[in-house]
Amino acid sequence: MEKEKLSNSELSQLRIPFLLLGLSIVVAALVFGFFFYQTRSSRDYVQVVGAATEGFESDIVKWNITFEENTDLVNMRDGYRRIQEKRDRLVNILKEKGVSEEDININPITTQKRWDREGQIVGYVLSQSLFIISAEVEKIENLALNPDELLDQGIFFQVSSLEYFYSGIDTLKKDLLALATRNARERAAMILQESGHQPGKMIWAQAGVFQIIEPYSTEVQSYGMYNTSSRKKEIKVTVHAQFLIQ
Hints:
Layout: H1 2-43, E1 45-57, E2 60-72, H2 76-96, E3 104-106, E4 110-115, E5 121-134, H3 137-145, H4 148-152, E6 159-165, H5 169-192, E7 199-207, E8 211-213, E9 225-226, E10 232-245
Parallel strand pairs: 8-9
Antiparallel strand pairs: 1-10, 2-5, 2-6, 3-5, 4-5, 7-10, 8-10
C-alpha cells in the first residue's frame, strides 16, 4: 500500500510540468494570435486626406475709428474739448443714419507726450477710439467708405478700418468637417477601386486647422487663420482619416 501511494504521489508530481507546459503553449498561442491579428488589422486599412472649401459672406461688421488732437503744454484742456466735440458730432451723425446707440462703443481718451529733436517735451497727443459693431453691413460700409459728409462736418479720422465676421461660423465649421470627412471616404474609394475593395469602417480621423481667407487666396497659417479684412471669405479644412479595407 505504501508503494502504491508513493507511486501516485510521484505521478502527481510528473503531471504538474506537463500541465504548465500545456498552459504555456495555450498562452503563447493566444499572444501570437493577438499580435498576428494586430499586424493584419494594421495593414488592412487605407489612409487619406479629405478636404472641403466653402465660400460665405460676413453678416457682421466692426468699424474701428480713432481721433487725434495735438496740444502744447498749456492747452491740454482745449485738446480734450476738441476731440470730444468731434466724437459727439460723429455719434449724432451715426444716429441720424440709423445706427443704434447700443452698437456704438466709446473708449476713454488717452494721452502721450510729444518730444522735439532735443528731447524736450513740447506737448501732448490726445487720442480717442471707438468702434461700431453692427449687422447692417452695407450701411456701415457706406459711411466708412464714403466719408465726404463727415469731412464736411470737420470730422477727420486718424484711423478708420473695417473688420468682417460671420455669426454662423460655428455651424459652418461643423458642416465643413462633415464634408471633408465625406471627401476622405470618396478619395479612399477612388484609391481602392482598381483593387476590387472598398473603404469600410473609419478607424481613425484627425481634423486640421480652419483657414478662413479671402476668396482665391493661397495664404495659410499652420495654427489656422481668420481673415477679417474681406467681406467675402472662404473657409477651408482638411481631415486625415483611416478606413478599414473591405
